[in-house]
């Protein structure tokens, strides 16, 4: 058996705060979703003025990153490369903005961001994900 780290609500709040700070710094209004390793929602925050659809999109991007254990951008690239059959897989949202949250080598959850262009969502997600890094992953 393996001992694993688990994402806490405090961790999720720290990740979301770092993502929010990046969004505000750039003047971007987004939704930030944090899920646990099983893709279950832990925290959702929508900045003022963000389109309501982004709440579901951010959650799905996070869920994709957690369940597939890779950035949602990697799946977007596979689909863009012609492998459109990937879109038939359950739980896939192949759009940039979802990143696994890694702590000491374990995927403990994921962050998803939606509200601006997908590459900008990715920048915000990266800022959030990096806040969890303890330098040992």
Write structural notes for this entry.
There is one protein chain. The chain is of the alpha+beta class and 137 residues long. The chain is 41% helix and 20% strand. It contains 4 helices and 4 strands; from the N terminus they run αββααββα. The protein has helices at 9-26, 53-68, 72-80, 118-130; strands at 31-36, 41-46, 98-103, 106-114. It has a 4-stranded antiparallel β-sheet. α1 crosses α4 (118-130).
The gist of it:
By secondary structure, this protein is α+β, with helices and mostly antiparallel strands. It has 4 helices and 4 strands. The protein has a 4-stranded antiparallel sheet.
Q: What's the tally of helices?
A: 4
> Could you tell me the number of beta strands?
4
Q: What order do the helices and strands follow?
A: HEEHHEEH
How much helical structure, as a percent, in the residues?
40-55%
- Strand percentage lies at 15-25%
Shape: globular
Classify the secondary structure makeup into a structural class: alpha+beta
Catalogue the unreliable spans.
none
Q: Could you tell me the radius of gyration in angstroms?
A: 14 Å
Largest sheet: 4 strands, antiparallel
Average predicted local confidence, pLDDT: 95
Question: Widest sheet: strand order?
Answer: 2-1-4-3
Distance between the termini: 20 Å
């Amino acid at each position: 058996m393996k001992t694993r780290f688990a994402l806490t609500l405090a961790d999720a709040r720290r990740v979301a705060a770092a993502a929010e700070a990046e969004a505000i710094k750039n003047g971007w209004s987004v939704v930030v979703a944090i899920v646990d390793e099983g893709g279950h929602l832990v925290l959702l925050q929508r900045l003022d003025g963000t389109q309501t659809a982004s709440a579901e999109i951010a959650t799905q991007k996070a869920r994709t990153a957690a369940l597939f254990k890779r950035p949602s951008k990697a799946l977007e690239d596979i689909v863009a490369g012609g492998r459109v059959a990937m879109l038939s897989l359950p739980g896939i949202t192949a759009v940039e903005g979802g990143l696994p949250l890694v702590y000491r080598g374990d995927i403990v959850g994921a962050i998803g961001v939606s509200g601006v262009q997908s590459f900008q969502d990715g920048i915000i997600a990266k800022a959030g994900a990096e806040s969890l890094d303890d330098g040992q992953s």
